[in-house]
Structures
1.
Amino acid sequence: MTTPPLATPFGGQQQAQQAQAARDVNTASLCRIGQETVQDIVLRTMEIFQLLRNMQLPNGVTYHPNTHQDRLGKLQEHLRMLSVLFRKLRLVYDKCNENCAGLDSIPPEQLIPFVEDDSSKHEDRLASQSRPATEERREIMEVNKKLKQKNQQLKQIMDQLRNLIWEINSMLAVRS
């Protein structure tokens, strides 16, 4: 004999909240479900083509009717599953569009930093954002220039040392 569940004063509200949470699936998980559905559709389509490739046409060649009927049944089952998957994908697509309908659409021009743009408002915003980047880029270029100069000086010193060692070695060779 089982005991009945305890009744709580907020039991009805908890169940309603859980049901609401189950209905309000976030858009990212819907997109993941949609991606998995598309992968299932591709897999089923590949299986359908595999079945069609392996089927023999009844063109006078002796074939086994049981095998043919079995393959035909598999093909029909795959087609039925494919239509179910497409319906599921449509539902996921509609739900994603419904969830995203309230979002403000941001034009791609505002998301991508352009070098040249005609609108002054966008240029002002870009200029204020790019000032620190321009200064940083200038500093990096100055450091690179100094580094190249130091590398050039080191190369000259190395060449001078190489020449000096060559002369010392040649003088020692003449002495002996």
Note: Residues 120-175 form the longest helix (56 residues).
2.
Amino acid sequence: MSLNSSSSTTMLTLPPFSFPLSARIPALVFSALTYLTIICCNLMVVVTIAINHNLHKPMYMLLINLPVCDMMGATAFFPQMISSMLYDPRVIPYWACVTQALFVHTYGAGSLLILTAMALDRYVAICQPLSYNTIMTNSNLIKIISAVWLTAMILIFILIVLALRFKICRTNISDMYCNNPSLTNLACELTHVNNFYGLFTIAFFQGISLCAVLFTYLQILITCVFKKQSEARNKAIQTCGAHIIVFLFLEFNAFIALLSHRIANVPTFVRRVLGVSVMIFPPLLNPLIYGFNTKDIRRNILAFLKKKTSPF
């Protein structure tokens, strides 16, 4: 891997915030509170699943990976953004930028694959209930979780390493945080290989996830429609609807934000807003949609809180 010797100490410049100087402190406080809310809510879901043996089931063992991934993404984004609010111009060391890009993309890829695995689990549970215990064994569960994380980490690691091959001719980051397109735009040379590999990762992660999730939830909805129990059917349809909305939000925003670097007429403001929304809203909404909205998890959380607040 050839890398110019000065790049490791190079300071990169991030775009300035659009809000006035007087709003900087309120924005900093709001961002810090949002980050703490994300960490607390996601950590509560992780701890609840971990300490309650009645939740040690395939569905929840897959689910526990989502808040872990969300906390990783939020931690890659918020601390750097909050600290940069204190300085003008906003700067970040090159290797810190590379590290942030690595974790940001791993978060995005991991989220899509985890949501795909969760959708497949629900498909087997609802559409093939008699085969569920045979298919979702502990051994297969470990294989699925390992495949999700290894696939995300290996493909994203290659993506970032490809960007490190080039000498740096620019120091301005084009997005509000560091990512692969912003790093690639710093290069002096042509980046055809990076562009092709970047498109491959977009097609792989988002294409496979979209097809798998839409297929599984469509099959689930069809199965639920023909169920005689109206209450079970309505509950399943509401749950699938909420999951699909959250998934499509992540899928659409991430896709447009990444693809907009290759489309000249997409406004910079739109790309930045979509990119930031991917880092904020899924980690904030996922513990509500997939965690607290799940009956077993909600019941265990409420029982824990009641026990802690009870004087006896």
Note: The two ends are 63 Å apart (CA to CA).
3.
Amino acid sequence: MTSGRPIRVLNVAEKPSVAKAVAGILSKNQGLRVREGRSRFNKIFEFSYVIQGQPCLMLMTSVTGHLMELEFEERYRKWHSCDPADLYQAPVRKHVPEDKLDIKRTLDEEARNCQWLVLWLDCDREGENIAFEVIEVCTGANRHLTIWRARFSALIDSLELIREIHESVQNLVRPNHLFADAVDVRQEIDLRIGASFTRFQTMLLRDAFMLDFATDDRNLVLSYGPCQFPTLGFIVERYWEIQSHEPEEFWTINCSHNLPEGTATFNWMRGHMFDYTCAVILYEMCIQDSVATVTKVKNQEKLKYPPHPLNTIEMEKRASRYFRMSSEHTMKVAEDLYQAGFISYPRTETDGFSERTNLQTIVQEQQGHPVWGPYAQRLLDPGAGLWRNPSGGGHDDKAHPPIHPTKFSAGESGWSQDHHRLYELVVRHFLACVSQPAVGAETTVDIDIAGESFSTSGRVIIARNYLDVYRFESWGGSVIPTYTFGQQFVPTTLTLDSGVTRPPPLLTEADLLNCMDKAGIGTDATMHDHIKKLLDRFYATKDSNTRFSPTNLGEALVMGYDDMGYELWKPYLRSMMECDMKAVSIGTKRKAEVLATCLDQMKACFLDARLNKLKLLEAMAVFFERSNRSAGGEQHSIGEVVRRCNLCQESDMVLKRKPDGNFMVGCLGFPQCRNVVWLPGSILEATVTTNICSFCTPGPVFRIQFKFRRLEIPPNYNVEHLGCIYGCDEILRQLTEICGTGSRNHSGMPARGRGSTTSSNSSFQRSNIRPSACVHCSQAGHSSNDCPSQASRFRNTRSSGMNSQGEASIPCNTCGAPCTLRTANTANNRGRKFYSCQSQECNFFVWEDSMNNSNGGRGAHRANVANSASNPRRGGRVNIRGNSVDVSFVSATGDPISGRRCYVCGDPSHFANVCPNRGM
């Protein structure tokens, strides 16, 4: 770089506070001009600077975290727009959300007039990913930009920081796309897995059960997240450990010795025994030879070390343990303190200070505090010998220092109690970590009684050191009498005591954070969000002691997946993903390779889980009552894909079961696309198979395995049938004509699609149906319900006359069995004569006076008692050669059935499947 005409340099930081700090350092607050950007929170700082001899006009602005979001393309965003399995391959894109558009406009406008782009984002993976988002926006406005990256560790107001900022801008490097790729992998995996499983389990379970905990269960989301679910798994697993624990009695020998200088309590080295007989034998041996002999006396100096410098997870754990503050609330309070300038950035994994950091400057600011100020003065006094350079915990995110105080405060008037508490924790923790450890003298004494060993210990604190300021920790001890090696004495008490084993306690929030940290579930910036999500989704509850218990819903979900044989609720899967993402960040694996492998595995898992969805339903049924509602606000619950919609060409046609029990195949694009195929009303069960129809195009068209109600189809048809619903299946078409469909609408009413019309209530797509033949005489030109052969057959029934017992009878027009003449004894038809078939396979019924008037009769399939009230196919109008008999709907006993009418013409005397107006 050589001197010449000044070049315009656009500098972008991750936060407004960083932009302000860096601009102040580089300009030395001289000639610094500030102007507004499009976003009122992200100002633009202008100043002159020289980079390696090149004069530059520096423009410093900022973003606020991620500038872009990853989402599916428009057609996949709605829940019913596609099969959830399609989300594993559905196109995704990054875009700038509405609330970040002002920041994007600022970057666009400034980048057009600049030659360089210098990125001052955090130097971790997330910061690198944000850097590439900024690059995408800026190069979109000016593709000739030269891209540079400034690398710096953190913003601590010290001389070291000033030097580091100047060094970083003089030694600019290129951005690291591998770090950005690792974050892209995580975002895409989380989006695809989370969306697919969330849609699947929400649409499967939400309306299938009475979820009484939800006030607005129509909008209830049963979410799944790759980090959220293992977090729930920790809670459920501990709960199951407690529930499965069986108390077991044990026995232990306790020994004590009283002396004028104190009492020593000796613990049995065996701990305890579960065998009572063995414990009694050993105890009796000790009683018979009860003289104790001192076998060891050990005096040693013990140190209790102060904590490592404070990172985010440790701050959340300690705030929960000391103040019972939730992790989510802790982060909110910490953010307030950070924005006000009292503490450093609260989202950091780093737990060790840089050697170049001037820590004494931070301590000096605390000398005036009325409570811990005197301790800060002692720390800075070389003669006190209290100072100690802090030891690190081995974590460094290369982006932020440990959390520490950045400004003195004796308490602000606007602070809540939790603000005071958290600021005190940060200050005391920092003062403690730069202090000497506490020193104690510990004495351990071992004794022998009849061959059994016992031990006791005592401790005396010699120097409290950091414990003087860190009031949250104690180092208790007890003083024991003085013993010498070989000394003998008779114990004051020697008892055999019993106890029972106890289960582990429920996890506290600190315990849960620790489990997540060890398993690599979430990051320091997201762990509290995962925990809060469990509470918001009613998966877990937290009591006043911050201990977590699973709700029935949370336990049922884990139980369902566990019964499938999957350990989706275990941390192993996420841990493997994290290892793969680390491999991407160091270049040993490629982004596309990790994405393909992980998503293929999870899609196979998803498809298998969907096939085994009965396990989830069974687990939910253990805790919740079944519900008969239709699926929340949508037409029906989502089913299995039959084919791509041949009308809108965008969404899938899926098998659905309506609230009344009837089946249909409808488009997931509803209500924009109303393409639907109504199926025969006599179907009991239906399941989409992997068998593909070889006739229907365009494919694939998956065939459906049907099971019909035996009593609602003619006896010459099988109950089980594997068929295709798109017109090539003659048997299914005949059954639809005989039994009618489950549609409630007018059979000729068109469905409103996208720019075209199709018949929504026809059994199959009309374009695929060939002219049908009557199932009785195999002749075309009339329907099976109007077949002359059937009418003539019925007319012949009048010649039968008497049965073998001399009673008047006619043969059943379905099974041929004799139907005796009976008399109705109901209020509406008392004394009226009728014929009815006694066979359980049919339900032939006809009034005698109707036969005399019109030679008519009625046949209906008998349903069982449980289904009779809801079966819309009981009774009907009798058709003979096109003439109809005026017959009301009646039960087998002659009672009229109220509330039933044809949905085609509204006539209460018949149903739509025998309506003379049908198809007009």
Note: Confidence is low (pLDDT under 50) at residues 630-637, 744-773, 790-800, 854-901.
